[in-house]
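Dear support,

I submitted the protein below through the web form. The confirmation email said the job was done, but the results page showed an empty box. After a refresh the structure appeared. I'm attaching both so you can tell me whether what I see now is the final result or a partial one.
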Amino acid sequence: MKIQVINGPNLNMLGIREPKIYGSASYADLEHYIAESAAELGAEICCFQSNHEGELVARIQQCHGKADAIIINAAAYTHTSVAILDALKAVALPAVEVHLSDVSAREMFRRHSYPAMACQTVIAGYGFASYRMAIKYLLENSSTQN
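What the results page shows now:
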């Protein structure tokens, strides 16, 4: 299974940004963790990160015909981006929304997710393990495995 991981704004600042919420590990550490998890679980992974909404939309669109599934952490765009929702709906691939923190236990505005409307499930609050759980979920629940 080919899974595209898409990470949104400020994830490139992991290890620097609010370490009490996001921890001290870097974005490079996250990519390494995702790659190791995918290899152990038997998935092919490609990671992408951008701070720009249009680049995230373009990457989702590029998944059409090239990826079997998407894992998305739209970060702050989770709560604001109908464009990301529409892109996910357009490609119609199995998708899982992930978050490092438990967004449901944070500020009220973080409790609404546009991408979740096009995702099979949301996994939040498990740190890096959220991504491993998403890979496992997609492998166990998608019929588009190669």
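Response: this is the final, complete result; the empty box was a page-load delay. The radius of gyration is 14 Å.
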